[in-house]
Amino acid sequence: MIELRNVSKKFANGHVALNNISLNIDNGEFVFLIGSSGAGKSTIIKLLMKEHETDSGKIIVQGKDITKLKRAQIPYLRRSIGVVFQDFRLLPDKTVYENVAFAMEVTEASAKEIRRQVPIVLGMVDLSKKSKQYPHQLSGGEQQRVSIARAMVNGPSILIADEPTGNLDPEMSWEIMKLFNEINLKGTTIIMATHDLNIVNKMKKRVVEVSDGVIVRDEKRGGYFSENQNL
Amino acid sequence: MIELRNVSKKFANGHVALNNISLNIDNGEFVFLIGSSGAGKSTIIKLLMKEHETDSGKIIVQGKDITKLKRAQIPYLRRSIGVVFQDFRLLPDKTVYENVAFAMEVTEASAKEIRRQVPIVLGMVDLSKKSKQYPHQLSGGEQQRVSIARAMVNGPSILIADEPTGNLDPEMSWEIMKLFNEINLKGTTIIMATHDLNIVNKMKKRVVEVSDGVIVRDEKRGGYFSENQNL
Amino acid sequence: MKIRTSKFFIREGIGSLRKNKTMSAASISSVIAALLVIGIFFIIVLNVDYAASNLESQIEMMVYLQDGLSETIIASMGEELKSVSGVKDVQFISKNQALMDLNEKWGDNAYLLEGLEGDNPLPDSFKVTLINPSEAGSVALSVSSISNIERVVYGKEELNKLLKATYILRVGSLAIIAILIFISVFIISNTIKLTVYARRREISIMKYVGATDQFVRGPFIVEGVLLGLIGSIITTILVAIAYYYSSNFIKNQMIGLLSIELMPMKTVVSSLVLLLTVVGILIGIVGSLLSLRKFIRV
Amino acid sequence: MKIRTSKFFIREGIGSLRKNKTMSAASISSVIAALLVIGIFFIIVLNVDYAASNLESQIEMMVYLQDGLSETIIASMGEELKSVSGVKDVQFISKNQALMDLNEKWGDNAYLLEGLEGDNPLPDSFKVTLINPSEAGSVALSVSSISNIERVVYGKEELNKLLKATYILRVGSLAIIAILIFISVFIISNTIKLTVYARRREISIMKYVGATDQFVRGPFIVEGVLLGLIGSIITTILVAIAYYYSSNFIKNQMIGLLSIELMPMKTVVSSLVLLLTVVGILIGIVGSLLSLRKFIRV
Ligand SMILES: Nc1ncnc2c1ncn2[C@@H]1O[C@H](COP(=O)(O)OP(=O)(O)OP(=O)(O)O)[C@@H](O)[C@H]1O
Ligand SMILES: Nc1ncnc2c1ncn2[C@@H]1O[C@H](COP(=O)(O)OP(=O)(O)OP(=O)(O)O)[C@@H](O)[C@H]1O
Ligand SMILES: [Mg+2]
Ligand SMILES: [Mg+2]
After folding, report:
1. What are phi and psi of C297, to 5 degrees?
2. Is the domain of C166 the same as that of C280?
3. Fewer Cβ atoms within 10 A, N terminus or C terminus of chain A?
4. Which residue(s) pair with C64 in the sheet?
5. What pLDDT is attached to residue D268?
6. Position D188 confidence tier, pLDDT thresholds 50, 70, 90
7. Do D98 and D116 contact (CB within 8 A), yes or no?
8. Residue C290 sits in the same domain as residue C170
9. How far is the centre of ligand 2, averaged over its atoms, from the C-alpha of B213 (Å)?
10. What's the pLDDT score for residue D240?
11. Which stretches does DSSP call E strand in D72-184?
12. What pLDDT is stored for residue D121 in this prediction?
């Protein structure tokens, strides 16, 4: 279970990115995080994985208040969460295969396990052919899919994806959503920040809308817009 | 006018990204470049601005065959084209304002002109408040908008945008599209690679679809899918 | 830590050296350059010290004997002198020998000695060399208590001057090598800092996907060791070659010039290997770890 | 290029130094360290050369006169000697003076001279110092053609030894400083290469938005100049302070020890400022430009 309790985040430059937000996400839920550009979606995600410190409030992940986590414990938190970063964050000196394998290497997984698991997830995101390429040799969408593969490779109990389909064509986006749906059905909690209104509207999952650092909507089976205000 | 004549591009690793494509774009046209992830859209754009060398074929931009351009002439080609990069390419040590101003500095524009022009384009992309922030202090969508502002600031005769709305919410995406439409009406040629089916479908502009390095469709007023094959 | 992880570190460390060619070349060659400075200076200091010791050991004490002693007495006096603590060697010089030596030494002024041959006023003497020249005073005291000795002379002032000169040489060269080692260490760790800085983004990405500090450090330590090792091996080879040629040059130039000898090649190279390897590897590791600290905290 | 653009370059160059604090600190301090090595060595070489010249100028030529010359003749001989080309100074030493000097010089062995006072066998002489000791041979030849001269003595062998020794010292120290300058230049340009490498992505971005090569280079040149300037100023100050204290130390240690003098502070510092500034700025600029070449070609 993930719980944010009265969480606020003010950046060093004075910008208040989150203003006293509270949110409960049960194990196995599938939550869309939506909201306009700069609303605070990525900030929520970064607090969950301790990329930023929380200013006030509590964040409880799997029973532990991570705002009080010791530095040495952070890597273990991050391993239990698979994250698709909005800016991909691939290691430029590693091939696609090595980038995905790296997420397993840090857990000290066995060589055998790595050799078995990595090709499977690369296949899932349709990158088997690109496994020996370096990130700079990939298209934008291919890089994004490497990031998705890496987030899934350890079979984390929580998967957080920040705008994971921003560089993918509609078909590929649907493939990825199917994948997310599958692992969600197997019990993985999924939190996905997205701007893709088609996806949100068709998936009919829980929708949490952030606006200017506060949660303005939280619907069990919501659409991208609250009351049919279409474009 | 932009003309690609039998253009091919094979990368050093042997991958054929473009296979003998030809394409004519008139001055003042608005063209959507669509196609699945890895189809070759960005490669076309990179050839147009000479980020990569063309293997064979001719690329004529404003009457000149740019495949034969001397190295010293490349900067002038790039200034005449405003590019929104898929990976933003902001200078990390410069503020939002400085990043946009930089594109004017390289043209040796006057200080006065810069001071006048930069705030205007920052206003257009709704970033006036963020002008003093550094890229790492921005959200994904904000970074993308800086890249858009920079591409427009010199009032180029050709604007190329590579997935410029991938990190923007639908409303903001529409604002940007309105902007593009406006400058298109003023005569700017616009080429936009995108995955956003709503935008393509609603704008009803020329659609060029790339698939596996070849152009498979070129419709005057097309939609994202050719014959109503909806998801 | 599993064996597998260590293997991963080694593979990564080597891989990183190979993949970042520009950076590796720049940093290894800076390490070599910095170690070269240490190496050159170390050799100079070794030789200065060696020369100073040589000079010091040439300091000698003259023990002049009373006139008309029998050969047996002289012989037993020689034995007695040898047994004095602090004495390294004793050599008898007869009064005739002394006159001949003087004749030779004075060269142009030797005509002043004409006529002395008949009535040689010079005494018999022992030339005593000392283990440690700075003990000359106490040795002289012990020696003068031996009977039948006329005078003990050891150029107190000359000795003091020499000791002072070698002292300054030693302190000076040690100070300079200390400064140079400091500078070299500083340059190497700065170089490493820059290479780590160039990879700060990668380091943070590793941390973001769940790597522990130790896991990020591992490959850098391996890389540091390799950097130091490669640097010190190449430097040692360079210095050895340079020493070979320049010592030949100096020897040729100095034939019969000064009583200064150069240290043998083997001694020099073996101490160099040790010094440079230790310095190189240590800085490689410590430099990496210190530079990492800032970027690993994400 | 417009004035505005130069201003932009300067603003950017300074800005980049200020914004990349880690990198600027690392590179400036590496530049300082490298220049320090040059500086220290330059001072040592200057002083070695100074000492060598001092030693050489102490070489003197003795011109022994025939017996019983009148004072006027001796005086005119002195004048004649002074006019010989290559002669720096001439000093008359009477036979009495010569005996007294000898007495003093021989010290312990002076008793050998007892009785010589009545019938002094030493001749009157002129002590001649030379402008350039290596010309001793030709000077001696000219001098010996002067009438009333008995013999010209100038320690041919001693002179040769000294000239050879100072030659080795000079060649050796020049060789070492050449190597050190080379090493320092190398280290500085490597350091710059690494800082440029760390910014390769930014350089390519600038090119992609339409900057000319010249436009990208501008700020780097400014940065290179600043790097060199700051580095050389700090180094000069450090070296001046170090020289002040260590020359004091050496002077104190050497009172009455050797006839070696140290160069005056002013001379040292003024030549240093020039050397280091030129070296620093030049490498700063050239290093930047060379390192840029690779990354600017996009
Ligand atoms: N390090 C930072 N320092 C200062 N302000 C920041 C920092 N990071 C983010 N912000 C600001 O906080 C706000 C929220 O940012 P966040 O990245 O959470 O937005 P987002 O909802 O993810 O937007 P997007 O959809 O564009 O990715 C933005 O206005 C951004 O400018
Ligand atoms: N530098 C490179 N070296 C080798 N292959 C490359 C390189 N750049 C791109 N490619 C390959 O060329 C193909 C086309 O890439 P491109 O970036 O043009 O795709 P795209 O249509 O823009 O895709 P996306 O929608 O994902 O951005 C991809 O398969 C990619 O892997
Ligand atoms: Mg975001
Ligand atoms: Mg692309």
Report:
1. -85, 55
2. yes
3. C
4. C125, C151
5. 79
6. confident
7. no
8. yes
9. 10
10. 87
11. 87-93, 125-130, 149-153
12. 72
d(CA B204, CA B222): 6
Tell me which chain B residues have a C-beta less than 8 angstroms from the C-beta of A144.
37
Provide the residue range defining the domain that includes D19: 3-55+161-295
Q: Pick the residue whose CA is nearest to atom 22 on ligand 2.
A: B42
Tokens describing residue C298:
């994400």
> A37 CB less than 6 Å from ligand 1?
yes
Lay out the sheet containing B64-65: strands in order across: B16-25, B2-10, B56-61, B64-65
User: Which residues does residue A25 pair with via DSSP β-bridges, in sequence order?
Assistant: A2
The DSSP secondary structure of A9-33, one letter per residue, reads EE-TTS-EEEEEEEEEE-TT-EEEE
Tens-place pLDDT, residues B94-133: 999 999 999 999 999 999 999 999 999 999 999 999 999 9
CA D132 to chain centre: 18
A227, B66, B161, B194, D17 from B199: Cα distances, Å: 21, 31, 14, 9, 44
- Given an 8 Å threshold on Cβ–Cβ distance, is B37 in contact with A167? yes
C64 and C30 both lie in a single domain: no
CA atoms in the 13 A half-sphere facing the CB of C258: 18
Q: Are residues C168 and C39 in the same domain?
A: yes
ipTM over 0.95: no
| Cross-chain residue pair B49–D206, CB shorter than 8 Å | no
Question: A219: buried, middle or exposed (CB in 10 Å: 19+, 13-18, 0-12)?
Answer: middle
**Long-range CB contacts for residues B214-219, cutoff 8 Å, separation at least 24:** B214/B18, B214/B19, B214/B20, B214/B21, B215/B21, B215/B22, B215/B23, B216/B35, B218/B23
On whether both C99 and C169 belong to a single domain, the answer is no
Residue from B10, B13, B15 whose mutation best tests the ligand 2 pocket (most atoms within 8 A of CB): B15
Please say whether the beta carbons of C249 and C39 come within 8 A.
Answer: no
Q: What is the pTM of this model?
A: 0.86
Residue C20 and residue C145 in one domain: no
Instruction: Check: CB of residue C68 under 8 Å from CB of residue C95.
Output: no
CB-CB under 8 Å, A231 with B198: yes
Higher pLDDT, D241 or C206: C206
Q: Which residue of C has its CA nearest to D250?
A: C168
The two tokens of residue D290 are: 């060379």
DSSP C262: P
**Greater pLDDT, C124 or A192:** A192
Sheet holding D125-130, edge to edge: D87-93, D125-130, D60-65, D149-153
The burial of A71, by beta-carbon neighbours within 10 Å (0-12 exposed, 13-18 middle, 19 or more buried), is given as exposed
C181 and C289: one domain? Answer: yes
Instruction: State the sign of the Cα–Cα–Cα–Cα dihedral B136, B141, B146, B147.
Output: positive
**Regarding predicted confidence, which is higher, D255 or C40?**
C40
Phi-psi region of B19 (alpha: psi -120 to 50; beta: other; left: phi over 0): beta
Last residue of a domain, one of D153, D183, D207: D153
- Kindly state if the Cβ of B14 falls inside 6 Å of ligand 2: no
Examine the domain organization and report whether D169 and D30 are in the same domain.
Answer: yes
CATH number, domain of D149, equals: 3.30.70.3040
Among the candidates D136, D153, D170, a domain finishes at D153
Structure tokens at B148: 């858009």
How close is the Cα of B66 to the center of ligand 4, in Å? 21
Cβ pair C289, C221 in contact under 8 A:
yes
Residue A43 in contact with residue A56, Cβ under 8 Å? no
Q: What's the CA gap between B118 and B100, in Å, rounded? A: 6
Question: How many independent structural domains does chain D possess?
Answer: 2
Inter-chain contacts counted by CB atoms under 8 A, chains A and B: 104
The CA angle A42-A44-A47, to the nearest 5 degrees, is 105
Output the six-digit token pair for D157: 């062998």
